[in-house]
Amino acid sequence: MPSNRKAFALRLDPAIHAAVERLAAGELRSVNAEIEFLLREALKARGIRVGELTPPAPDDVERG
Q: Among 7, 13, 28, 39, which one is most buried in terms of CB atoms within 10 A?
């Protein structure tokens, strides 16, 4: 299925991944959605505008 999301590999320190995973669980988000949320927050804090927020496609949601 085509998606409007850009897929790429991301290497993280295991401790950072674990922290993001805990945060995501507390916010009822997938790790992927939490990373995107955190990036958007960081960009906004730096005054960088990002296009319209679009909800993730159903096939982008992590299951598990």
A: 39
The DSSP call for residue 60 is G
Predicted TM-score (pTM) of the model is 0.71
Task: Report the distance separating Cα 21 and Cα 6, nearest Å.
Answer: 21
Domain hosting residue 36, numbered range? 14-50
Q: Which of 47, 23, 43 is nearest to 33 (CA)?
A: 23
Rounded Cα distance, 62 and 31, in Å = 8
Q: By the 8 A CB rule, do 27 and 57 touch? A: no
Chain center to CA of 40: 9
Number of domains forming the structure of the chain: 1
Q: Which of 43, 59, 62 minimizes the C-alpha distance to 51? A: 43
